[in-house]
Amino acid sequence: VINFNPGPAKVDPTVMAQAQKELLNYRNLGFGVLEMSHRSAEFIDIVDKAKTNLKELLNIPDNYKIIFLQGGATGQFSAVPLNLLNLSPDCTADYVVTGTWSAKAAKEAEKYGKINIVHPKLKKYTSIPAEDSWQLNPNAAYVYYCDNETVNGVEFHFVPDTGNVPIVADMSSNILSKPVDVSKFGVIIAGAQKNIGCAGVTLVIIREDLIGHQMKECPAVLDYKLQTDMNSLYNTPPSYSIYLTGLVLQWIKNTGGVTAMSRKCAAKSQLIYSVINNSNGFYHCVLDEDCRSRMNLPFRVGGPGGDQELEALFLERTKQANMVGLKGHRSVGGIRASLYNAVTVEETQQLADLMLSFQQEHA
Ligand code: PLP
């Protein structure tokens, strides 16, 4: 099966094979990570190794801390304001809302402070409003955006200029798919279940000076100070998910690091976008060219609004070709191909070939 699911997504088969091999017996301990004490030296080693590999892969500067938390990226929609809003004298933060996930993050943050959407509300999520039109507040605690909108397929191919105001970015669906200058960010959050492992663990990378400003109401499990002080081990961590993330990080390292992943992601997305662009409108991608995601590619079949019958037929064809996960999100419709790190160029080529032959049959 070729897995184009938007999440929880494919993990490379070699990583899964290693996890399978170690499931009952990790490093000759006679038991597996699922049964291991999270206070044991072996587990602490798993956490530390994952942190070291991540630091190396993303070239994370020394003044940043890495923690592995529960609660998903959605938990971080609360954790971010709870930990950072106090940085602003009047509890305000700026949000750039370019899709479903940043909209949800802004809505959650409104529970805790004054949230300013820096541009007029978008009627549809198909573009990024020009940066020079954003109304940024120089006294905001932070500027928040989602680097890759998984549902809508809007990806930032630049890091916004926010002056001295720290940037918080949700990279759940594109972390480790491209090199990132971490020093430009205050906080990076990412659920693991797309590019770096399985559901259950969320990665937080945070600049040290932003730690320790949490509101008194901040739950302990979301408290960046407590969690960084305790090396993510304040309470029972999502131990198996952290272990699997560690294996994925090692796999990325062994296969050429983030630069190689970035090249692969560009090649894969190019294969699909070029079929769309050369299809004389048979396939249609509604997104502005400059913000098209390399990870989640939504498109319609049979014209801009999509032809429902053709789209159902297209999905049937992909099913016959053992491809899964291509149905678009219910709020967007049509088709969505998710090309996370573990999807290969060859698998993507098979989808591109199928699209071409489907067009020949039905255009
Ligand atoms: N942010 C982005 C970009 C996502 O794609 C998702 C989930 O798909 C989330 C946040 C929410 O993540 P979770 O389900 O881990 O809370």
From TrEMBL:
Single biological process term from Gene Ontology: L-serine biosynthetic process
Pathway: Amino-acid biosynthesis; L-serine biosynthesis; L-serine from 3-phospho-D-glycerate: step 2/3
One cellular component term from this protein's GO annotations in UniProt: cytoplasm
Domain named Aminotransferase class V: residues: 2-351
Record has Magnesium as a keyword: no
Listed GO MF terms: O-phospho-L-serine:2-oxoglutarate aminotransferase activity; pyridoxal phosphate binding
Pfam families from the UniProt entry: Aminotran_5
UniProt-listed Enzyme Commission number(s): 2.6.1.52
InterPro entries: Aminotrans_V_dom (IPR000192), Aminotrans_V_PyrdxlP_BS (IPR020578), Pser_aminoTfrase (IPR022278), PyrdxlP-dep_Trfase (IPR015424), PyrdxlP-dep_Trfase_major (IPR015421), PyrdxlP-dep_Trfase_small (IPR015422)
Cofactor(s) for this UniProt protein: pyridoxal 5'-phosphate
The entry's keywords: Amino-acid biosynthesis, Aminotransferase, Pyridoxal phosphate, Serine biosynthesis, Transferase
Catalytic activity: 4-(phosphooxy)-L-threonine + 2-oxoglutarate = (R)-3-hydroxy-2-oxo-4-phosphooxybutanoate + L-glutamate; O-phospho-L-serine + 2-oxoglutarate = 3-phosphooxypyruvate + L-glutamate
Taxonomy, superkingdom: Eukaryota
Family of the protein in this entry: Belongs to the class-V pyridoxal-phosphate-dependent aminotransferase family. SerC subfamily.
Protein name (Swiss-Prot/TrEMBL): Phosphoserine aminotransferase
Organism: Ciona savignyi (Pacific transparent sea squirt)
